[in-house]
Amino acid sequence: MAGGKGLNPFSEENRARLQAALEKRNAIVAQANQNYVDLWDMPLLADAVTRRFEDIRKGTEASNAVTQASTPRKRLNYSTATGAVTANAMAGIDSEIKRLQGQVDVESAILKDRQRIIDLYESQGYISFKEATEARLAAQEDFTERLRALTDEEEAILRRGLESVAK
């Protein structure tokens, strides 16, 4: 019975085999646990890279301090919105882009629903595999066409904004 070899489960031989198997299992579990601890304690690559860049930056700053006077770096301004009119125009562009993103989300939801309906019809036997495939393709083409129109509209908004705001 014991071990599939018809041994007496209470015999010393079987107990020794079970003890050896248990020790082997415990060693494997201990090694696996140690691997988890090592992985948990191991510094992440991103942290190591960040620290390395900080060290490089500190070294560069130290060498620059020797060669230059300590003047604060000029802060770069990536926004061209300097006046109230420009700021309002930028806010309008942002709201238009958010509106278009909302429409993209709606179109994505419609496509998902159409795909679910097609899958349901096919699984119930109302349409064949070929018809379902054609319907999926048509739904995807409709979605792509609507997405293309929204992208064109977004591009037009950004071009108008570039002409009016970025002067």
Short description:
The protein has 167 residues and is mainly alpha-helical.
How would you characterize this protein structure?
By secondary structure, the protein is an all-alpha fold. The protein has two domains: 12-67; 84-165. 78% of the residues lie in helices and 0% in strands. The chain is built from four helices and no strands. It has helices at 12-41, 45-67, 84-124, 129-165. Helix 3 runs antiparallel to helix 4. The N and C termini lie far apart (89 Å). The mean pLDDT is 81.
List the helices and strands and how they pair.
Blueprint: H1 12-41, H2 45-67, H3 84-124, H4 129-165
Helix pairs in contact: 3-4
Q: Based on Cα principal axes, name the global outline.
A: flat
Distance between the termini: 89 Å
Q: For the residues shown, what is the average pLDDT?
A: 81
List how many beta strands DSSP finds: 0
- Beta content comes to under 5%
Query: Structural class given helices, strands, pairing?
Result: mainly alpha
Secondary-structure element pattern, one letter each: HHHH
Q: Roughly how many Å is the radius of gyration?
A: 33 Å
Helix content: over 70%
Number of domains: 2
- Uncertain spans, ≥5 residues at pLDDT below 50? none
Count every helix, treating DSSP H or I runs of 4 or more residues as helices.
4
Largest sheet: none
